[in-house]
Amino acid sequence: MEATRPTLKPSVSSVDEERAVKEEKVPVTYQGRKTSRAGSELRRKAILEAALRIVVRDGVRGVRHRAVAKEADVPLSATTYYFKDISDLITDTFTLFAEVGTEKYRNFWGESKEQLINALLELKADPASKERVMTSVVEVIVHYLRNQLLNHRDYLLAEQAFRLESLRNDNLKQIAEKHTGLFLKDLTELFVVIGSESPEADATLLMQLIYSAEYEGLLRPEGEFDEVWARKLFMRGLQLFIGTLFASK
């Protein structure tokens, strides 16, 4: 007899719902001089994009008014006009990074979420499909990791700098929490689907495993990606997660 697939009805608590709403409403506030004209906003954005390129190439310490002006091909007076001090420039650079990064992540997640949820629903309905489902889930994660390391390496380098700088910059902490919170919220939904008793904790562990794999990948020469290593890493991780979930079932 064919098993009936359950429908997706995440049992999110009222506390989780309140937290999710709060996360979505966290405002993104820029610190530098506000602009009202389109031309001024374009120049301001060009300065921030130039600063981000410097972060990727030289690190946060390389962000200086003169260096950014040269990179953006604008007068030095333009950078000091929009950003009176270097702290505002660095904060707004990472604020822009977080906005762009969230949009890119949402594009990826929109393509992958249904595939992952369907696979996990199949696993919940038929535990005997565990190996096949885990292989499918691992392939989605490895595809994401490969794409990030080979096609968006600069983004990952900027993210590493962003996370480190947020530890020292109070203005960035809330932005960093929201940036990470979106990823955590989506992963938590996946663990709710398969009946985890601690979905947010499991999601946090998986998220940290992905972050660790990205960091290890960045340590390798540019253009290289060890798919065998990545598959082994995430297959082992899923075996531990799912093995624990179904051990008593």
UniProtKB/TrEMBL annotation:
Gene Ontology molecular function terms on file: DNA binding
Transmembrane intervals: none
DNA-binding region: 64-83
Gene3D superfamilies the record matches: Tetracycline Repressor, domain 2
Organism this protein belongs to: Parendozoicomonas haliclonae
Listed Pfam families: TetR_C_31
Keyword match Cell cycle: no
Keywords: DNA-binding
Gene behind the chain: betI_1
Domain HTH tetR-type: 41-101
Disordered as annotated region, ranges: 1-20
InterPro entries: Homeodomain-like_sf, HTH_TetR, TetR_C_31
Residues in coiled coil: none
Protein name: HTH-type transcriptional regulator BetI
